[in-house]
């Protein structure tokens, strides 16, 4: 596996080795030993699978307690995946990084605890998988406004259309009002 830096040093792209031939391919997507050798000594407690259609935006989500680190990847389709640093003590506080993840590109994204996370579906549909370092705790879940001008996230909206959002995400907190980490 190969570790690739992003503009935010704590957020990493992980590129697995893919072994392919005329029959298809094989790749290892998680190995505690391999990740530890990259400096990512992680323990995951939950796996999630999300299926969405084009134009859906999920996020920007985080949990103010039981903050989750997430290892995310796409098995079908394509997304624009975003991590926003909401750790006040961080040198990259308020900055975001966006990465295209797709079934054509087997890269994964590591988003540590202390970040808001979201993704936008660019393909007709997507299967999005992620491993989490802590439990889902809905009472602590928060949503940050996806289009807050203070963040100026450059979402690649298909046809320039406003994305489809859940009620919770449509009423996400503004950057100025959101609860943050110390």
What does this structure look like?
The chain has 182 residues and is mainly beta. It is globular, with a radius of gyration of 16 Å. It has 2 helices and 13 strands; from the N terminus they run ββββαβββββββββα. The model has no long low-confidence stretch (mean pLDDT 97).
List the helices and strands and how they pair.
Layout: E1 2-5, E2 12-15, E3 18-21, E4 24-27, H1 32-37, E5 46-53, E6 57-63, E7 70-76, E8 78-85, E9 96-102, E10 108-111, E11 115-121, E12 125-132, E13 141-143, H2 167-170
Antiparallel strand pairs: 1-2, 2-10, 3-4, 5-12, 6-11, 6-13, 7-10, 7-12, 8-9, 8-11
Keywords:
six-stranded antiparallel beta sheet; 182 residues; mainly beta; 5% helix; Jelly Rolls
Q: Tell me the distance between the termini.
A: 32 Å
Q: SSE order, as H and E?
A: EEEEHEEEEEEEEEH
The total tally of domains equals 1
Strand content bin: 35-45%
The CATH architecture name reads Sandwich
**Strand tally, please?**
13
Name of the CATH first level: Mainly Beta
Question: What do we call the CATH homologous superfamily?
Answer: Jelly Rolls
Which sheet architecture does the biggest sheet show?
6 strands, antiparallel
Radius of gyration: 16 Å
